[in-house]
Amino acid sequence: MTTPKRVEIGWPALGIAVTAELDDRNAALAQSLWDAMPYRSLQGHALVAGHHLYHVAPVHSLLYQAATYKVEDRRYEPDGTIFASRLQHLGIKYGELTEPMPAIPIGRVVPDDVDSLAEAGRAVWEAVYTTKKPVIAEVRRAGENNGHSLPRLTVTDPEADALIGDLHAETERIWLEAPQELVDLHEGRIPSCAGSYETVLTTLLFVNGETRPLGYAAYGGLVRAAYEDVPLESLRQMARILTSTPAEFLAYCGLEKVWYFTRRTLDCIDRIDNRDDFAALMAHMTLYLNCLGGWNLHLFPWQLGDHLRRVSAPA
After folding, report:
1. Are 44 and 28 in contact (CB under 8 A)?
2. What's the Cα-to-Cα distance from 150 to each of 36, 70, 165, 176, 202, rounded to whole Å?
C-alpha cells in the first residue's frame, strides 16, 4: 500500500477545516484530484440523499476515468468517506444517508476531524436551504498554499479551440460568483415572461430540471461515449439529439448563454476530426453546465417547501 496523500479541505466562511487522506482503492482517480489541487469551488449539499456534502471539482477526467473499486451501497461507508463521481463531484459522507447507490471511495477524513466535518455539513445545509450565503470550499495538498485554477484543454481546429477558450473564460467568471442570468431569474427578472400567470417558481423548477441533466447526462455522457470508442459520426448525431432542445428551452427561461454556447458547439462538431478533440470540447461544456447547475441548486428557494415534511409510517 502506498503512503496516503494528505489533503486539507477548508470552508473559510465557516472557520472550519478538516484533513483527509486519499488512499489507493482508486489510485488513478485520487491522483487526478491530487494533480488538480489547489482549487476552490462552491460547496453544495445533498438535497435528497441525506447528510452528504459535494462540490464540482475542476477535473475533466472524473467524467470518464474508470474506477478500480466500488462499494455497492455508500450508506454503509464510515462517516468522513470521500467519493469521486462521474457527475464531476467530490462528495463527503458526514452522517446518515438514505439513498442506496454504488459509489467510488477515494479516501477518508481523519477520525479526529469527523465531528468538525459534521459541523460544516450542518452549516452548509443552512446556507443552501435557508440563508443562500455561498460557502466556498478550499481544497489543497496538506501543508501547501491555497490557490485556484481551472484546466484549459486545447484542440487542433482553430475555431473549436477558440470556443473552448471562450467557454473556459466564462466558466472561470462564474465559478465563484453567481451568474447574473441565474440571479435575475431567481429574482423574477425574466425577459421572455416565462412562467404562466406571472409565476416564477414554476420556471425555476423547470430550469433546475433541465440544467442538471444537460450537464450530468447529455454533455457528460458525450465525454464518456467519446472515450468508449463510439464512432465520431455517431457522437455528432448524439450531440445534436441530446443537447439542442433543452438548451433552447433554457434560453427561453433566461439562460441565453447556454443556448449561445450550445449553438457554437453544434456548429463546430463537423469540423472536429478526432474523438479526443470532440471529448475536450464536450468536457468544457460539461464543466460550464455543472457549474451553472451548482449555482442553481444553491439559489433555488428550497425553504418555500419547509411545511412539507416526510410522514413516518405507523409503528
Report:
1. no
2. 8, 28, 12, 11, 33
38 prior amide bond cis, ω within 30? yes
Residue 288 CA: distances (Å) to CA of 151, 196, 255: 12, 29, 12
Q: Which domain holds residue 113?
A: 5-141
User: What is the pTM (predicted TM-score) of this model?
Assistant: 0.96
Residue 309: inside a domain = no
Residues 25 and 111 placed together within one structural domain of the fold: yes
Q: Which of 79, 114, 141 is the endpoint of a domain? A: 141
- Alpha carbon 54 to its chain centroid, in Å, reads 8
166 and 270 housed in the same domain: yes
Whole-number Cα distances in Å, 256 to 154, 190, 222, 250, 293: 25, 11, 22, 7, 15
In this prediction, residue 4 carries a pLDDT of 81
154: left (phi over 0), alpha (psi -120 to 50) or beta: beta
Count how many domains the chain has.
2
**103 DSSP 8-state letter:** B
The residue type of 3 is T
Count the helix, strand and coil residues of the chain and give each as a percent rounded to the nearest 5: 50, 15, 30
Domain boundary among 107, 141, 175: 141
Task: Give the cell for residue 230.
Answer: 463510439
- Alpha helical stretches, state H, 187-231: 201-213, 220-227
Residues of the chain with pLDDT under 50: none
